[in-house]
Design brief:
Elements lengths: L5 H6 L18 H7 L19 E3 L5 E7 L4 H5 L1 H11 L3 E7 L8 H29 L6 H8 L7 H10 L3 H12 L10 E4 L2 E4 L4 H11 L1
Parallel strand pairs: 2-3
Antiparallel strand pairs: 1-3, 2-4, 4-5
Helix pairs in contact: 5-6
C-alpha cells in the first residue's frame, strides 16, 4: 500500500485524546466516567455537507444526522460498536448515523481496511457495508488484503474480482482521503477516533450508551 504524501500525513496526525472535559449537554455519574473511561470534547463548529455516497443507517428522513468518525484498527472504535447498534435501535426512526473514515497513520492496516469498506459500499450498498463494517471490527487483528477478501466474500452482491482490483490499485483511497479532509474541516480542536459529530458538537471517546443517548436527545 503506498504511503500518503508528507502534507497529507501532517494533516492527519490527531493528538491523543484530550483530558476529560465536561459538556453542558451531557450529564453523567462519576461511576459512568470511571467505568467507561469516557473522554468528552464538545466544540462548536460550522456545518458540513454529508456526502451523498456516505454509508448510512437509521432514519431516511432524519431530524438529526450523527457522523461517526473512526478507524478500523482503533480499539475505542471497536468497543463502542454494540453501543452504536443500540443507538440505531433506539433512534433509528429519527436519527441517521453516517460513517466517516479517518484511518490514523500509526495503524498500518487502517487505510486499506477503509478502502475496502468504501468498495464494499459501492458494490453492495448500505446493507452490505454495515455487515462488512461489523466484520472488520470483529477481526481487527487480521486486516491484510487476503483477510479483507475473505470477509468481502461473505457479503452478498460483492464481485471479488472488482474488490481485489480496488485494493490492488487503491482506487478508493481518494474517497477515504476526502472523508479525512472533511472531518478536519469540521473545526474540532482535537480530532481523535472514535468521534461523533452532530449539530455543531463533537463528542470524542468511548462513550457508554447512556452518555451518547443523552447527547443525541439534547440535539433532537
Amino acid at each position: 500500500m503506498p504511503s500518503r504524501n508528507a502534507a497529507s500525513k501532517a494533516a492527519h496526525q490527531p493528538a491523543d485524546p484530550a483530558p476529560l472535559q465536561h459538556s453542558a449537554r451531557v450529564t453523567l455519574s462519576r461511576r459512568s466516567w470511571l467505568v467507561a473511561s469516557v473522554l468528552l470534547a464538545c466544540a462548536p463548529s460550522r456545518a458540513v455537507v454529508i456526502p451523498p455516497n456516505a454509508p448510512r443507517i437509521g432514519a431516511r428522513s432524519p431530524k438529526l444526522v450523527v457522523q461517526e468518525i473512526g478507524d478500523y484498527e482503533c480499539s475505542f472504535c471497536a468497543e463502542v460498536v454494540p453501543t452504536v447498534d443500540a443507538l440505531v435501535e433506539k433512534f433509528g426512526d429519527r436519527v441517521a448515523f453516517v460513517w466517516r473514515n479517518y484511518p490514523l497513520d500509526r495503524h498500518p492496516s487502517a487505510m486499506i481496511a477503509a478502502e475496502s469498506a468504501v468498495e464494499v459500499h459501492a458494490q453492495a450498498g448500505d446493507a452490505g457495508f454495515w455487515k462488512y463494517h461489523h466484520l472488520l471490527f470483529a477481526n481487527q487483528m487480521a486486516l491484510e488484503p487476503p483477510d479483507l477478501e475473505k470477509y468481502a466474500a461473505k457479503i452478498p452482491g460483492v464481485d471479488l474480482a472488482r474488490f481485489r482490483d480496488a485494493l490492488k490499485t487503491h482506487s478508493r483511497q481518494p474517497d477515504v482521503l476526502r472523508d479525512q479532509r472533511e472531518v478536519d474541516a469540521l473545526g474540532v480542536d482535537r480530532v481523535a477516533t472514535r468521534m461523533f459529530y452532530a449539530d455543531g458538537d463533537a463528542a470524542v471517546g468511548a462513550y457508554p450508551f447512556d452518555a451518547l443517548s443523552a447527547w443525541i436527545e439534547a440535539h433532537l
